[in-house]
Amino acid sequence: MKEYSIFYADDDEDDLMFFEEAVYSLSGDEAVKINLHLVKNGENLLEVISQTAANNSVVFMDLNMPAKSGFEHLEDIRSNSLVATTPVIMYSTSADKQNIEKSKKLGANYYAVKPSSFRDVIKLISKALSLDFNTDTAPPNDFLLNKLAI
């Protein structure tokens, strides 16, 4: 059985529930176990990742959160030696090129625009879990994870 840990930081309750349902539908596969850690605004994200991150961990991070933006949380992750190599996917409703480029510049592994359909969220999460972040690096044309998940 393959085991994964997913950390999802978002301040929107509906987005958290939607993502959680998608993860649980994937967890129904007996060959996959997913430990999901929901963080409501990112404030204790570093602490949660530091305490529970393991191999096959990935962070999905919303850009627009109160107090600190997803960009600021990404900078915190990349500057903390305990969690700096944890894969991060910036996960936002925004498809703005500046946000995508800034995410890449700050060290995100991928950027994903939040899909509106449940099926597409499942495909996106599945694609993220299929990546080997130890060897896979996002070439400039493939930084947008949505393109790879279709």
From TrEMBL:
Segments forming domain Response regulatory: 5-129
Record keywords, A-Z: Phosphoprotein
Alphabetical GO biological process terms: phosphorelay signal transduction system
4-aspartylphosphate: residues carrying this PTM: 62
InterPro entries, per database record: CheY-like_superfamily, Sig_transdc_resp-reg_receiver, TCS_response_regulator
Domain of life of the native organism: Bacteria
Protein name in UniProt: Response regulator
Species of origin: Euzebyella marina
Taxonomic lineage from the root: Bacteria, Pseudomonadati, Bacteroidota, Flavobacteriia, Flavobacteriales
